[in-house]
Amino acid sequence: MTYMVKPALTIESIHETVIGLLGPVSELRRLAEGEESRVFGFRHGGDDLVLRVNPEGEGFHKDRFAHQKFATASLPTPEVLDIGTLDDGHAWCLSRLVPGITLQEMTPDALATVLAPTTQVLNAIAASDLEGTAGYGPFDANGRGRYDTWRAFVLDAPDPAGTAWRAAADVVDLERIHGYIDEIRRLAAFCPEDRHLVHGDFGSNNVLSDGTVITGVIDWSEAMFGDSLYDIANFFFWRSWLTCMELQARHFEQTLAMSADVWQRLRCYALRIGVVEFQQAAPVSLAAWTMRRCDEVLTGGLRGPG
To answer: pLDDT averaged over the chain?
Structure first.
């Protein structure tokens, strides 16, 4: 994802904003935030609502499209009620509150009880009806993908010569980046031209649960059309960064038919996820970890211990 500076908002300032939009509200509070948004919950007219404020609004429009197009009983997503822009240019999005906590907030024991429901939601994402959409890779708020083929997306890895890499210049070795990209190009031959809905950032703070079922999948800003294995590769890449990703990666090691081709695709997508993390100006501490993780994936370290 792209790392942008979160809006500087206080409870007092957001209270004035919400009153201006809706009138009197109650129980205004901060909620768990993503990488870019400030998030506030409150009650209005008997409804539990959420207001998110972000530097830009493209992802909010994709959230609305995802709910309108793909939400089902098997794939719960929050209804987006309205989208707008504040006086300072920041985008806001008003949606219904999804109950529960994120997978990232759950204890390992609690997470173990929802691994199967999480897999069911991933299957529902992959099985979504794509009628009326087009293309591959990241799509816009009208369901139009940027690429003509899936491999075109996979092969369009960020150019290490680009200016965005300078943010992590102290920890990024461009020669090693070229090595990752060369391996992505080699492994792309194993990637099928499948076309499914892919969340693009699934598994940690964008999936909520009540401890029994998945109550909502949020933040569709990175969503795309392509190989559904891309979402699973996200678990494998981030497994040593977050406990929730490690547990989900182990789950798929035990339940997914891990043929040689599947491992090659997972390695390809995991490397691409890592390369994009550099290009999108990850914090320096995370960039250093990402470089080490890409080295591990490059040398076959996608599997867990044992």
So the answer is: 90
What's the rounded Cα separation, in Å, for the pair 234 and 254? 16
Q: Is 201 annotated as catalytic? A: yes
- Whether residue 110 is contained in a domain is answered as yes
Query: Are 27 and 42 within 8 A, CB to CB?
Result: yes
Question: From CA 114, how far away is CA 106, in angstroms rounded?
Answer: 10
Read off the CATH number of the domain in which 87 is found.
3.30.200.150
Res 285 pLDDT > 80: no
pLDDT for res 174: 80
The residue among 40, 71, 96 that closes a domain is 96
4 occurs within a structural domain = no
By DSSP bridging, strand 145-147 and strand 136-139 are antiparallel
The predicted-structure confidence for 120-155, as pLDDT tens digits, reads as follows 999 999 999 999 999 999 999 999 999 999 999 999
pTM score: 0.92
**What domain range is 44 assigned to?**
11-96
Q: Please compute the mean of the pLDDT values over residues 25-46 and round it to a whole number.
A: 86
Which of 63, 201, 219, 231 is the catalytic position? 201
